[in-house]
Amino acid sequence: MNPVIGHYALILALFVAALQAALPLAGLSKNNEKLFAFAAPMARIQSALIIFSFLILTYAFYANDFSVYYVAVTSNSHLPLIFRLAAVWGGHEGSMLFWVTILAVWTLAVTFFAKELPLRFRSSLLAVMGLLTVGFLMFILFTSNPFDRIFPAPFDGRDLNPLLQDPGMVFHPPLLYMGYVGFSVAFAFAIAALLDGRLDVTWARWTRPWTTAAWVFLTLGIALGSRWAYYELGWGGWWFWDAVENASFMPWLIGTALIHSLAVTEKRDAFKAWTVLLSICAFSLSLLGTFLVRSGVLTSVHAFATDPSRGLFILLFLVVVIGGALTLFALRAQSVGLGEKFDLVSRESFLLSNNLVLFTATASVLLGTLYPLLIDAMGMGKISVGPPYFDTVFVAIMVPGIFLMGIGPIASWKKASVPDLASKLKWALGISIISALLVPSVMGRLSPMIFVGLLMAFWVISSVLVAIKTRLKAIPGNDVVKKFKMFGPAFNGMLLAHFGLAIFIIGVTMVKGYEQEYDITMHSGETTVINGYDFTFKGTLPVTGPNYKSKQGQFYVTKDGKEIDLLTPEKRYYPVQGAVMTEASISINPVRDIYISLGEELEEGGWSIRIYFKPFVQWIWLGCLLMGLGGLLTMVDKRYRLKKKVTNNESAAT
Amino acid sequence: MKSRHKRIAIIVAGIALLAIAATLLLQSFQSNLVFFFSPTEVIQGKSPSKGNFRVGGLVEAGSVKRDGTKVAFKVTDTANTMGVVYTGILPDLFKEGKGIVAQGAQGADGVFVADQVLAKHDENYMPPEAAEALEKAKLNQTMKGEVK
Fold first, then answer.
1. What's the CATH number of domain A1-165, 2.40.128, 1.20.120, 1.10.390, 1.10.10?
2. What are the tens digits of pLDDT across the range A182-199?
3. A299: nearest CA in chain B?
4. Which residues contact B6 (CB under 8 A, 6 or more apart)?
């Protein structure tokens, strides 16, 4: 298979995507219905071409075609097949092609699953997605063509960065990109609504599952990345407030706000302009993230490509897309309207506060992420913003938001009564305070942060229980399973996601509050007692992997004479890149991780060793998983599968 | 009339809350900014004598001395050199002759006590801060040469 075909396919896709954008937009301005019919076929052809081109590149990796420059610099014939395939998105050019391929997948999905949308609206939706495709294809073709060749072809490739040779590389980027790019659908919905000058309840209902899908992907993608960093980077951290992490976290925060605001728009026909604005913001932040990662302005593990012309192109693209969208919003927001009124104490109010909290939190992360770049760009020196800033500010902003999160699902729409809420929640509050004091007394140490963290987690859990109880009471009968079915997946999914957040908070609080770190030196045959566990070091064994050589430490971990685990952290040497990698070894159980990584081999045959105790750390990712599952559950709700005829059956839906 | 008063009170309270939050936010921001200095700037006394900052440059060849988990080494921007000590496990790509960035504070003896050492996860990649330190030193030297 000649890689040139892939290049041609991309060029062709560019022209088809331009038609996909231009024809419906011309139809819109000339009021010519016939032109709308072009949108879907063009979108399908364009998507097929891009996916085809992606497969050609993947084949080049599969076949070790090192005449393709990109393959030569990111792969190697000794690399195991699964990593060769993942290496397709292991460098700059490939990950950009992957980005646009994911956009093609979403575009295809829209052409197939948005049939109930009116033709006019569906066409302008696809036109907007076509414009985005054009922008990214131009970026790839002009600045980062993955199909560039080198002659003569090198005998072997330069290998994938050893840090990326991990199952995490297979799943983390696809999930994350599905999330990032998925917000393009919500964005296109918003722009199409502005062009149409109309935004009604059905619009919100169509958008919701799409936005939730993107949010679920992003949630799982971020969580997976965090877990990967935890075991791979060898420092036992799970979140570093690294600029690239922030770049993925900001769309997540705004996406979370958007999901909630969409709920209000759908149920109560309120927050309309706000929802449109959030849709624009979520995707703009995704683009900003792409810019931050791809332009090389950051010092980060993710910054593998640095080329100012690329940065400039993405920056321009960013300005055009965000500037254009916001201008359109400013001109047309009035036609969309604000929506229904509501009382000061009502579910709408609580959701509005939730949105403000999430928006402020995003702003604070944005400040900490962009300020150093701004200072650097103005030549005022190099600075960095320390993680303590993010820790304190973010927590301080989120605490009131999480408190409200306990009340929101119980409050009624339009107007809720304060005494009623208080009487429903007073027990929940009491139980949370007691539990938040009880757990630290078992763990042996209490600090204000631990108390606040646990209080929030237990508050969310107990208020979820109250919400379930209230609902159960409202339905007559005794069959609990049947009642849960009657709540509907949307309600259950929401509760599951909230519960997941509580689990996440417990994980974070316990790790932050009670983790322990030991840097020690050990020689073969030595036993050290740490934290009640005996660690016996039996020296290192030589291990040969497919493309590396490794020294594998043997640590027997016992407690009170009972064997707990054999931990085998490694120091790997990858000859192709001459790189050394630390592979940590972790003993996992639900309430604690024991984490060992090898430092350096010392002259007298000993090793410097780092041992961590991480209580409840797995709950962090378990919580994220539950949030993701909750999101998935809401998507199966029947009211999103509606045919055109059922649209006025709103009152039946919860 | 009464409901109007109520509304004004809520708005005032809201603005007050927002102002307090913004003040706290900016304060926390200010106190967590970490500035970067090259070894030359540190020797010129431009870095803070108290509190954290970052230094960066190349690890001088032959300067790394290990004592258990304690490591002492020298960082250079080719014009000037300063001592750094660090306790713990260094990143995999920490090597003599390679670029690093260290974060910490300067002790009374002038040795920089690092609580974090960053080296990048790519053989050919230099932390931008370290690259800039070298660039600056080079520029100073050529300028001095011209004056002579």
1. 1.20.120
2. 999 999 999 998 988 777
3. B127
4. none
